[in-house]
Amino acid sequence: MAGTTSLEAPFGRVLTAMITPMTSDGAVDYEGAAALATYLVDEVANDGLVVSGTTGEAPTTTDAEKEQLLRVILDAVGNRATVVAGAGTNDTNHAVELARAAERAGAHGLLVVSPYYNKPPQAGLLRHFTAIADATGLPTMTYDIPKRTGVAIAGETFARLAEHPRIVANKDAKGDLEEASWVMARTGLPYYSGDDINNLPLLSIGAAGFVSVVGHVVGRDLREMLEAYLGGDVRSARDIHSRLLPVYTGFFRTQGLILTKAALNMFGLPAGSVRSPLVDATPEQMAVLREDMAAAGVKVPEVAHA
């Protein structure tokens, strides 16, 4: 697998859940995606990228678009970063197809979110994740985000999932530090923070790293915080965490993808518009976002004047 990895951090330490740039007519901007991936790896110092997750607009991109996007990003950065393909849907058979397509394209790993909307019981979650992990030879990261999916992965289910040789990590956006502590201690399953406000709290109980949204803009700060903490400089890590609070809050004043694309557009980076049913940030939302980033010490380009 490419990228910075270890036994404790199978996909690297600092990953960004990458947006999918769009052209002015709403098509996937593959050239822009390659350029943004290169920027995130070479300039922002990400160990890896998650492609076609929620922040990548997976619900509104086609399977063909996902595969082409993955291939383009692998061509751009796959020799120096871990490229993880989102393969989660609420249909097990469809998710298996996506996982196999990602493996054929050369992905280094899979991110598989819990089924959403249909709210399966724990036995269904176990069967779903196991079927996907069985379908390929790729290391798999489960994704527990009950506020979106409507169902949480229980600690006992994690204990069973961790026995699978290809289920090697969990992206946590549940925010239950007690359960996360218990699962990591009992199973050794590496956790990645999937909710930026909890990056440092999860790190403090043993998380491997982050799959970040704000990493599009402050990835170097996240790496500095992580390295400070792992190096024993807890005070510096806490100071960085506190400084980044306006960004952690600001990017999620509305749906996170909307404001992430707004921020990237401010910086002149490939992003474009969002696809319906999402809507682009309003001028008022962008003004508040600009203030949030400035409060966190992010140097925001001046507004262009005609």
The main sheet comes to: 8 strands, parallel, barrel
Overall spatial form: globular
Sequence of strands across the biggest β-sheet: 1-2-3-4-5-6-7-8
The secondary structure category is alpha/beta
From the N-terminal CA to the C-terminal CA, the straight-line distance is: 47 Å
- Percentage of residues in strands: 5-15%
Uncertain runs? 1-7
Overall strand count: 8
**Mean of pLDDT:** 95
Helix content: 40-55%
Question: Radius of gyration in whole Å, from Cα?
Answer: 18 Å
Number of H- or I-type helical stretches: 12
Q: Order of SSEs, N→C? A: EHEHEHEHEHHEHEHEHHHH
Task: Write a concise synopsis of the structure shown.
With 306 residues, the protein is of the alpha/beta class. Helix content is 46%, strand content 12%. The protein has helices at residues 30-42, 63-77, 92-105, 122-135, 146-149, 155-161, 177-187, 199-204, 215-230, 234-250, 256-266, 283-295, and strands at residues 14-17, 48-51, 82-86, 109-113, 140-144, 167-172, 191-193, 209-212.
